[in-house]
Amino acid sequence: MKVAVPKETTPGETRVAAVPDSVAKAVAAGLEVVVESGAGLEANFPDSEYVAAGAKIAASAEETYRDAGAILKVQPPSDGEVVLMPRGAVLVGILQVVRRPELLEGLAGAGVTGMAMELIPRISRAQGMDVLSSQASIGGYKAVLVGAERLDKILPLQITAAGTLAPGRVLVLGAGVAGLQAIATAKRLGAVVEAFDVRSAVREEVESLGAKFLEIEVASAEGAGGYAREQSEEQVAKQRELLSDRIAAADLVITTAAVPGRRAPLLITGDMVAGMRPGSVIVDLAADSGGNCESTVPGEEVVLGGVTIVGIPDLPRTVPHHASQTYSRNLLNLLVSLLEEGRLEVDFEDEVVKAICVTHDGKVLYGKD
Ligand SMILES: NC(=O)c1ccc[n+]([C@@H]2O[C@H](COP(=O)([O-])OP(=O)(O)OC[C@H]3O[C@@H](n4cnc5c(N)ncnc54)[C@H](O)[C@@H]3O)[C@@H](O)[C@H]2O)c1
Questions:
Q1: In this structure, are 170 and 294 located in the same domain?
Q2: Pairing with 216, which of 21, 71, 248, 309 sits 20 to 30 Å away (CA)?
Q3: Distance, CA 177 to ligand 1 centroid (Å)?
Q4: Adjacency order of strands within the sheet including 56-58
Q5: For the chain, how many structural domains are there in total?
């Protein structure tokens, strides 16, 4: 079966859905892999490395997609890409189904089976396929570096003949995958780190990384599948009030708070930004889903009253080599789990397939049960 790896066409996307290492493993599993020329260039994987791993290089998108049984992508395809997909092919990628219902109609019309990696269930067996975790972990790390770079202070304590510099104060809101990685990174840089999450279950993890879990009186909001549940506006307002002095005291605030399928909770208002020290920084990892800070402009960096608010979406794109490496491994793990005598078996008895398969046999399945 032919597996196609086209070059991403979404502006700003630097990652690639297969790297030479994942290609070599797919070839060893009996698959024929065709990579569009230049697909890995922005992530610094040249065509020659794909060839050495056993892939064929296609000169154009048309040639890449031709006769493909599986198509591996990072971003959802454009309409122009969907028309190139052979009927019956299985498309695997972050399809952003919540935001792109029209794409599902297009895929169903083209007879393509869509598998949305953002819907991988959080069960032990599927951990190796969890793209949200692999990418969030990189995003959490990079958020701290971006924030530290924008700060007018250094993060570690420094005691020298020229005097003592107190360590920087970092506050992390939302201690899921990205938040925990942000805490670990900020600690390594020498900051004093505080964190808060509405899932009180993460307290131990926060403390084990050497950060302080803030004691504020907000009801725990554990939801299904390890995620948070949406809180009432009243509860979020209470949370804002109770966090306001910690936000004002922080040099760097990293926000990662999210509730699947909902707008991100608004944890920092414009007034709270105005209460921060000029020179301090907010990095809002929830920028894509509405932002945790009222002043965040998705895709931009703004300075208000001397406070820098960074709303770069999809930070893993800024680390494309490693982000592609983990993303491609997630896809390979799924592909291998679906292989049955050299072909992909779409078995709806399989919990993972049932959760991620959004179009099949000309029909849209997502949101239908
Ligand atoms: N396969 C698995 O078993 C598996 C894989 C990955 C993650 N998980 C679990 O899922 C958890 C969450 O994952 P995620 O990081 O992708 O979640 P996410 O990106 O949906 O949310 C990020 C964090 O924001 C928190 N949050 C939501 N509303 C908030 C608010 N008002 N204030 C403060 N924090 C708020 C959430 O509790 C979560 O920890 C992980 O910590 C882990 O326990 C399990």
A1: yes
A2: 309
A3: 6
A4: 56-58, 32-36, 2-5, 70-72, 90-93, 113-116, 357-360, 363-364
A5: 2
Taking only the tens place, the pLDDT of each residue in 108-161 is: 999 999 999 999 999 999 999 999 999 999 999 999 999 999 999 999 999 999
Residue appearing with tokens 């990892």: 285
Query: Is the separation of the CB atoms in 8 and 39 below 8 Å?
Result: yes
- 132: Cβ below 6 Å to ligand 1? yes
With helix as H, strand as E and coil as C, how does 58-117 read? ECCHHHHHCCCCEEECCCCCCHHHHCCCCCCCEEEECCCCCCCHHHHHHHHHCCCEEEEH
Residue tagged 């697909």 (tokens):
39
Do 121 and 225 touch, CB atoms closer than 8 A? yes
Minimum-distance ligand 1 atom for the alpha carbon of 175: 39
208 is catalytic: no
3-state secondary structure of 172: strand
Residue 310, by phi and psi: left (phi above 0), alpha (psi -120 to 50) or beta? beta
Who contacts 26 (Cβ-Cβ below 8 Å, separation ≥6)? 3, 18, 33, 332, 335, 336
Q: Which of 187, 95, 97, 98 has the alpha carbon at shortest distance from 140?
A: 187
Note whether 108 and 85 are within 8 A (CB): no
Please give the average per-residue pLDDT across 79-98, as a whole number.
96
Instruction: Kindly report the CATH number assigned to the domain that includes residue 113.
Output: 3.40.50.720
Distance 74 CA to ligand 1 centre (A): 22
Give the residue numbers spanning the domain of 296.
138-318
Closest C-alpha residue for ligand 1 atom 24: 257
Q: What is the mean pLDDT of residues 323-350?
A: 95
Q: Would you say residue 115 lies in a domain?
A: yes
Region of poorest pLDDT, from 215-229, 289-303, 304-318: 215-229
Q: Is residue 127 part of a domain?
A: no
Residues 110 and 143 in one domain: no
Please identify which of the residues 130, 197, 284, 314 carries the catalytic annotation. Answer: 130
DSSP letter (8 states) at residue 142 = H
Q: What is the Å distance from ligand 1's center to 213 Cα? A: 15
363, part of any domain? no
Asked whether residue 128 is assigned to any structural domain, the reply reads no
The DSSP secondary structure of 227-248, one letter per residue, reads PBPPPPHHHHHHHHHHHHHHHH
